[in-house]
Amino acid sequence: MAKLIGEQVETFTDKVAANDEGGKGCASLKFIRVFREYNREHKPDLLSLIETRVNGGKADSVIAKLGFHRSHRVEATRFSGGIWICWKESVCVNVLKNHSKFVLVKVTSTSFRQPFLVTFVYGSPNYSKRRLLWEALHRTIPVDGSPWMAIGDFNTIFSPTERRGGWTLGKRWHPFRFLAGWVEHLVFSDFVKENLRVSANMSTVHSKFTNQVKRWNKDVYGHIATRKKLLTKNLHSIEIEQIEETWHILIKLR
């Protein structure tokens, strides 16, 4: 099952930021080490890196060390911004639109029933430029009912409680982690149609839908982390039983 990993609190992006040396982004000496830790844990088939701050030959060199078979990138501008998309042979990725602040791709694989669209976004910190981005994004939304999502760094706050005076408090709250398995679920398409109402205020749209899909993942789809822990615990119990059974057999043979 393909995994699409976007930025989220306490995951890979925050680890890179914590180890970033002087704002070097993916050119940081610690980047590859931190990335490999993340890759071992999550094993993503498709990955997006936002605000890479690396261009040209240096970018090619870093991407070659990530362990993915294919890649596409939007160059950073004066060491600011940049979008990298990397994927393995388990998925097929076709770039449909290349924009300075986002990339729209179509993802297909034999592991899920139908293709879906993903827009990887890096929103400008400038409000006026960000409004132009929302308008451009709105024009790329499929009208034929195809599954579509937008992930990345939107450089916006999602709640008035994050702002005090002219200052934004704490970290930006990033969108959820999207699992391709959701697309295969029988009721997910209806859930999206019912709960995702696109409007000009993208911050409100993402905030509301993020909360709704988190509840849906836990109550309907089944929280993947909880299921993983339960399966690991069951496997461990089986291994212990097998060891004890083998031990008793060896004692009898003696």
Q: What global shape is seen?
A: globular
Q: If classified by CATH, what would the architecture of the largest domain be?
A: 4-Layer Sandwich
Biggest sheet features: 5 strands, mixed
Integer count of domains: 2
pLDDT < 50 runs, ≥5 residues: 1-19, 164-175
- Radius of gyration, rounded? 21 Å
| Strand-residue proportion | 15-25%
* CATH T-level fold name of the largest domain: Deoxyribonuclease I, Chain A
DSSP helix count? 8
Mean pLDDT: 75
Description:
The chain has 254 residues and is α+β, with helices and mostly antiparallel strands. The protein folds into 2 domains: 3-222, Deoxyribonuclease I, Chain A (4-Layer Sandwich), CATH 3.60.10; 223-254. 42% of the residues lie in helices and 20% in strands. The protein has helices at 12-19, 31-42, 56-64, 127-140, 181-184, 188-195, 202-222, 224-253, and strands at residues 3-5, 46-50, 70-74, 83-87, 92-98, 102-108, 116-122, 148-153, 163-164, 167-168, 178-179. The strands form 3 sheets. The protein has a 5-stranded mixed sheet. It has a 4-stranded mixed sheet with strand order 5-6-7-8, with helices on one face. Helix 1 packs antiparallel against helix 2 (31-42). The longest helix has 30 residues, at 224-253. The model is unreliable at 1-19 and 164-175 (pLDDT under 50).
